[in-house]
What we know:
Blueprint lengths: L26 H4 L28 H25 L61 H28 L1 E3 L11 E8 L18 E9 L5 E5 L5 E4 L3 E4 L2 H19 L5 E6 H10 L3 E5 L3 E3 L4 E3 L2 E5 L1 H9 L8 H19 L2 H4 L2 H14 E4 L4 H16 L3 E2 L3 E7 L4 E5 L3 H11 L14
Parallel strand pairs: 1-12, 2-7, 4-13
Antiparallel strand pairs: 2-3, 3-4, 5-6, 7-12, 8-11, 9-10, 14-15
Amino acid sequence: MSDSLPSYAPKNPRRRPRPSDLSRPSSSATGKAATPTRAVSSPQPSEQKETPIKPIPSRRSALAKDDSKQARHVRAVSASSKTSPHPEGRTPAALPSFPPRNSSAPDQTIPSFSPTVSPAQPRISNSSPPPSQPRAKRKKRKFPIALSLSMTLLLVLLIAWPVFLYTLVGNHLGRVDALSTFPNTPGVTYLIAGSDARGGEGGAPQDGTTGERTDSLMLIHKAENGKTVVVSLPRDTDVEIADHGHNKLNSAYAFGGPKLLVQTVENLTGLKVDHFVLVKMGGVAQIVDALGGVNLCLDYNVKDPKSELTWKAGCHNANGHTALAFARMRYQDPRGDIGRQERQRQVISKVVKKASSSSVLLNPLTTYELAMAGSKALDVDDSMSPYALAKLAFAYRSAANQGLLGTPPIESLNYRNGHGSSIKLDSQKTPEFFKKLKNGTLEKDDLNVFTGK
Length: 453
C-alpha cells in the first residue's frame, strides 16, 4: 500500500495551508494517528516547540500572496518528483487538495492548480440582474384588403368627382361676348342680368311678349379689402345709352345685347365689369327643382295671373315654378320694381345658401343635377371659368350674410323723360355712393335710401 500525503484542514478555515505543511511525515511511517502540527521540521525532543501562528493578513491583501506561494510550491514538488525517486519504492505522494477560498465548510476541496497562473478574474456580484431575454417579434397584422380598396376608391372619387363636375359645367356653359375696354378698377366686379326672353330652353313662359330685355340687374363688387356688396340696379333706371340717348337701363340690352349693357353700367357706376353672367329666367326653376325647393317668405297674399303666382302670406317651401313666379311678380307689389328686386335677391340668396350646404355638396346625385341645370341656365363671358363662377356664388353669400344688399339712392320712382315712367337716381348722392362701393367703405345705411318727397 502506497503512502500518500494527508489532507490537512487548518484550524482557521480562512487560512490557506502553507507550503511548509507539506513536509510533515505521514501517519503510516510512525504508526500513529496523524495530528496536524505547524512544525516544518523535526527538531530534538528537548527543543520541540510549537511554532507560533502569525497574524493572518487581511483577505484582500493575502489572496495575491497565496496564489503566488501555491504556484511556487507546485513547481517545487513537480521538480523533486522527477529528480529524486521516493525511497522504498513508494509512489510519489499525491498533491493535497485545498478548501475553496469562499467556502466556510472545512471538508470541501478545490480543484488542483495548474502550473500556469492565470490572472485574477473580476468578481461578479450576485445581485446583478439576469440577462434580459430578447422579446419575441410581434406579428404584423395584415391590413384588410377590402378596407384598403375601399379607401383607395373613396380617395379617387374625392378627387375625380369635382374634376368631372368642373369639366361638365365648363362644357355646358353658354358663352357671350360681353366685356368692354373700360379701364381697370380695384377689386372684382360681376354683373348679373336676368333675361326675360320667352320660350326656348331656359326661357320664361310664353305670354305673347316679343323681344328680349333684362328683367333684373345686379352689380356685385368685391373691394380690395375683401368687403362685398350686392347692388340691385332698377331695370327702369333712367340712364344715358351710347348712340341712343336717355332711356331705361334694360333697353341697352335690347339695343346692343350684353356688350352695350355692360358698357352702359360701367359709365353709370365708374366700375370696370370683370365678369358678366346672363341668367335665363326659365333656368331658375330648373335650379330650384334640382335643389329640392327653397323656403321663401312674403307677408301678404298674392294672386297674379300674369306671373302665375298664388301666395298665402307667410313662409312656404316653393318648387321651381313657384320660385320663378315669386321672382317675376310685379303688378301686385305695392312697391313695384323695388319690391320685385328684393324678392329676386331673396330667391338667389336661398339658392346659393342651399347649394353650398354640406347636404348638397356631399350628395353626388344632387350635385350632378345642380351642375347640369346651372350650366344650361347660364351664359357667361368668354374669360369666366367654373372656378370664377363659384367665387361669384361665395361673394354673393358673403354680402347676404352681412346684410349688404340694396339699391343706390333714389330720388324719384315716377320720373318722366320721354320714355314712360322711370326711376331717377339721386344726382348728388349717387356718385359718392359708387365711390364708396369701389373703395370698400360702403355701409348698410348707404343702401336703400330714398331721397324724394
